[in-house]
Amino acid sequence: MSKFKRNLITTALPYANGPVHIGHLAGVYVPADIYVRYLRKKGEDVAFIGGSDEHGVPITIKAQKEGVTPQDIVDRYHKIIKDSFEELGISFDIYSRTSSKTHHELSSAFFKKLYDEGKFIEKTSMQFYDEKAGQFLADRYIVGKCPHCGNERAYGDQCEACGTSLNATDLIDPVSAITGNKPELKETKHWYLPLDQYEGWLKEWILEEHKEWKPNVYGQCKSWLDNGLQPRAVTRDLDWGVPVPIEGAEGKVLYVWFDAPIGYISATKDLTPEWEKYWKDPETRMIHFIGKDNIVFHCIIFPAMLKADGSYILPDNVPANEFLNLEGDKISTSRNWAVWLHEYLVEFPGKQDVLRYVLTANAPETKDNDFTWKDFQTRNNSELVAIYGNFINRTLVLTQKYFANRVPERGELTDYDKEVLAEIPQIVERVEKSLETFHFRDALKEAMNLARLGNKYLADTEPWKVIKTDEGRVKTILNICLQISANLSTLMEPFMPFSSQKLREFMNIDVIDWGKMGDGVIPAGHELGEAGLLFEKIEDATIQAQIDKLLATKKANEMASVKAAPAKENIQYEDFMKMDIRVGTIIAAEKVAKTKKLMKLTVDTGIDERTIVSGIAEHYTPEEVIGRQVSVLVNLEPKPLKGIVSQGMILMAENADGTLSFVSPDKEVKPGSEVR
Fold it and tell me: Residues that bind ATP, according to the entry (predicted)?
């Protein structure tokens, strides 16, 4: 790798129509923050750029559903996302937004420059138009039957049931999501970036010059390039976004995929007046952290845009990750199948580093991985608490107990002592090597090896036993353990900044520079601070609550997808009139002995007081039903049940999950009132 003067690190802009979940964190934001914190610890010049992507159709759809403006939606979620990132310790130098004035101005200027230089081609095409709504329909505003799987609610760009990418014209019986009307095809004009003209250059730049890119990134780029590139529209018919800044483009905005990556540039411009040195100086190294769904945009389309302009640098690396699943199922915002960051921060206060640790240890770097709450608990209890936290706690408690909380003088070193001390710089070197090549999971594993080394050294040397016969030897042992502890406060900081700060407070030390790690980082005689627990055990009940929460979500999703049973065959009106349905009041109730489902009810029907046996005992207690008004079929022929003659039937509604609910009047009426 050539030596650069500075680093420009960007993260994919989260879409501001919902909060951030653990899939986003594992794929993009935690690895990016680890890398940035590492570079800063080494004293490098870094600009860490983030922001919310606030344009596009999904935002307008959400606003329409809620009866608010798109600005209301993005303001709400921008704040939620920004605040939760800050609380997790994602250390952006700026977290901006694409609805900002700077972004609109810069995006417009970027488009206008390319337009004036003839870099776009102008084309007319037939697109769906909703006459009633008076507008062209973006892909997400068109729904119909998927030609591949038959899903009745596929969108014009993708079927979420089978995952197939679609064109709106592929849909069977398409309708407008705005009005429900059948749209018509109508001619419209747009501007396109001719990606095919950049195909040869892209092949050279990516396939020949960047063979060091991750195999998943390189492979996806190669596939696209081998299949041939096509011109791609940079404008669309919509009223939410950056207006197209030329005559004859009224009612059109920049396509969100075009303006969003320019958000990196506009955010940098808001960060510093020297923004151009980060974007236009070849001595700057630009790295995009993204998920695999954004590879094409950041490796092919955005570089083509920058190349078309001619004044910008290109990304040096794009270390995209794969996807993180949740409990064996794909994370889905529409199905609420996710662990949301803002909720986690409330439900697990002070445990930001636990989430950062687990997501890094289980990072989907080369393949899709799975997050489970049981694994989360195990990694916390068996690794953070039992290894790292245990080593730190024992070291500090023993130092306090034996040497008045001061770092003891070291005596003569044994061969084992020397081996342990020699291992520190080797571990640091392996961590560095993994971080430099974006193998964050391996880097964390190596960093934890330093805690494992300390834990094993402490267990092997047993200072709590040796103190009885050789205090000088214990001084050496604990001095070495404290050197390891101090090194851990720096080595772990990119991964777990909060616990590293806590550890420094326990040890009463300042930040140790990355390059100064090794032996002798904490002098003899130094007074330590007050020790505490670095991590705490997470109990089964806490984890079960999260699992139950997901199970409730799964059940709600299943219920939402259940269709009502088809209607039975038609009957004559006279057949219905034969049924005498009255409102009755339950005045007594008891479970029927030796049954699970049956309850014996005494009901005032207004005609009489009668006994009815009903199969509701699994859904209600006797105490719950007394006094309830219910609908009773009073002219049903009596029937013996478990030795009790049941004189009628209570009408119940059965939900899709099998639960029962009374069919009752919405306000109290006189018993005997007829149901018609």
Answer: 333
Residue 448: inside a domain, yes or no? yes
Residue 531, token pair as written in the block? 């020790």
Examine the domain organization and report whether 377 and 486 are in the same domain: yes
Q: Is 149 annotated as a binding residue?
A: yes
Helix, strand, coil shares, percent, the chain, to 5: 45, 20, 35
Q: Is 146 assigned to a binding site?
A: yes
Residue 525 within any structural domain of the chain: no
Is 162 one of the annotated binding-site residues? yes
Q: Is there a domain that residue 614 lies in?
A: yes
474 and 452 within one domain: yes
Question: Cβ neighbours of residue 387 under 8 Å, at least 6 residues apart?
Answer: 448, 451, 452, 455
CA 237 to each of CA 169, 179, 585, 672: distance values in angstroms, whole numbers, following the listed order: 17, 17, 60, 61
Please tell me the predicted confidence (pLDDT) of residue 1. Answer: 44
pLDDT tens track for 537-555? 999 999 999 999 999 988 8
Cα angle value 306/207/285 (rounded, 5°):
45
Model pLDDT for residues 44-53, shown as the tens digit of each residue: 999 999 999 9
Decide: helix, strand or coil at residue 615: coil
Q: Do residues 57 and 82 share a domain?
A: yes
pLDDT digit string, tens, across residues 365-413: 999 999 999 999 999 999 999 999 999 999 999 999 999 999 999 999 9
In a domain, 55, yes or no: yes
- Residue 163 — very low, low, confident or very high, per pLDDT cuts 50/70/90? low
Tell whether 449 and 505 lie within a shared domain.
Answer: yes
406 and 459 together in one domain: yes
Entry pTM:
0.86
